[in-house]
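Entry 12.
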Amino acid sequence: MLPFSAPAAHGEGEAVGITAKFNLILVTVLGAGFVAIGLTTHRTLYDNAYHEVLGQAGLMMDSAMAVRGYTFDEIVPLLTSDIEESFLPQIVPAYAATQSFKRLHENNPDYVYKEATLNPTNPRDRAVDWETDIISMFQNQPQLKEFTGERETPGGRSLYLSRPILVSDEACLTCHSTPEVAPRTMLQRYGNANGFGWGMNKVVGAQIVSVPMNVPISKAQATFHLLMAVLAIIFIAVLLLINLLLKLTVITPIQKMSHTANEVSQGKVGAPEFKTRGKDEIAVLAVSFNRMRRSLDKAMAMLDSGRS
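Predicted 3D structure (tokens):
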């Protein structure tokens, strides 16, 4: 039998090329999905962390309001009878809420609480410029019950939650209407220049809980990095698994078929037929290849018989 003068095939090199092209497409698709998921989840996680921090701030403010209510309902009646002898700041709801939050602040140092007032009895509660703007907004918009915002501070951007302080009980005016009706002991402690001129149903201040913006940002980034690490591991595992399946079901059969075709093209009639498994496209191709090879062997046999 005369051998064919065909060039040697490079099945293995072609298989590597197929794998490289497939991986390029797969990496491009997975990479685009990775970037899309990253952009979407980063915004979502940041928003969730932002609202989570605001929710915690609201809970702390509700806690301060609970302390205020407890002080006004249960502590003030017990100590009012002694107010002519000694003024105890513990009977002031704002003082009780602020002191309570100071203890809470020890375990939650990122959260700062203040009952900012335009004309407070205690100077430490006096509103600064940006707090005054918030109070003025509540005064000008009585229907507004809560306001959140961001502001620049020396330590970076800060997130704050604020609610109006409204004089809703006439008992408050005992100490805050005019110095003439205020307890003598209170005037001795704080003087008669501050904390007066309040009126019923008037906004006199604002409760403000401030949190550095790095708190929600750090929460979002920590979750984002964890999520991206998990996704990267999943994508790599998928890439490796698909490559393994590709090699077992496509590349290896094609390499074997290419090797057999190379031997047949060089006239090696003893090369074994390609064994097939299953009914997929590769198996159908193998069956067709074996049929073509048998036909070729018969044709070559007839050609050799004619020459002899």
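Annotation: The chain is about 60% helix and 10% strand. The radius of gyration is 41 Å.
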